[in-house]
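FW: tagging you since you asked about this chain on Friday. Here's the raw sequence from the shared folder, copied in full. Didn't touch anything.
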Amino acid sequence: MREAREELLQAADGLQKRLTDLSDDIFRNPELGLKEEKTSAKMQALLKEAGFKIEPGIAGMPTAFSASLGTGSPKIALLAEMDALPEIGHGCGHNIAGTASVGAGAALAAILPKYLKPGSGTLVVLGTPAEELGKGKIEMCKAGVFDDIDGAMMVHGSSKRKVIKNFLGLVRLNFVFHGKTSHAAAYPEEGVNALDALILFFNSIGLLRQQLRGDVRVHGIITDGGKAPNIIPDRAVASFYVRARDLKELSSVRERVISCAQGAALSAGCTMEVAEVGDFNAPMKINRAFAEVYRRSLERLGLCEEYDSPEKSAGSSDIGNVSQMIPAIHPHVPIRQGINIHTREFAQATCSPDGHRALMEGVKALGLTALELIFEPGALEAVKKDFADNID
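HL: got it, structure written out here
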């Protein structure tokens, strides 16, 4: 293993210019979710050149792909995100995240044929589009892409080096309140104000928050509050996100939020409809054994994890759905202190020397982690046991 690790790191160093160029090119040419044609094509081209067998357009998404090397078990997956944000571009750093997985795959491809016997292991790089839409990995879960995979991993750019990162489960709800129009000055008594119901709903949510657990988030906006001040609104619409770190709490809070809407509608004399929209994002199922394998990889690189609560600054991601199916990790590689994702400042930092350093940290740490899972049966057994024992 020591020789294989040294050769992996040498291979990664040899790819550095190519990988930083790819990441910078993706930064300069951002593409939105499910429209990542150029990004996906460039990732696939690099992997094909490295010796991977490419299957494009998987799970019904033209920009998704599967690139495989080797045969048999274990089967380890590297997840390559690729989409950008509207207007901000790569403010979430998917140019680093995706390129790190592609780069780790290419570096491993340079050495695995020497060490991997036929039928003794498979490395897969999965191009996972539309993370910002909360969609790509979920569609791949539905299509069975992860059914025969033993573990999946990726890294993400951040301001700190974190091995364990929590993601909250997310349910998206749309509420429509129905009332009756009337002239707001001449005949107000004949109207039923749907906006009143919606405002009562928002006030109810504000009061509910005092009784919610610390990890729970409920936040929403009004998307339709009426047409003119002199017309009592007969329709008012709100869009809400409900988040929590475990499935049981998420289901409970979802019902409480809906009850608030029902009560508000009843108080205002309105009717109400609620619809769950988009895909459900599952919370991240933490696998500490998997995280330990990644930590050992960092130690071999002479790097230390920066302490920060996994609960801090938690959002939601479609990797949560993957983690509920198979063992998965989503460590963070540090770009620069004091910057936050989904900003133009963060996007610019991804193509700086700091961003390039973070990218190569991800390439090497992912590669070393994959090596241990493939060649050390005890490591993968511990990861699988942790997954089986962790009942959410």
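FW: The chain has a mean pLDDT of 96.
HL: agreed, and Residues 2-28 form the longest helix (27 residues).
FW: great, closing this out.
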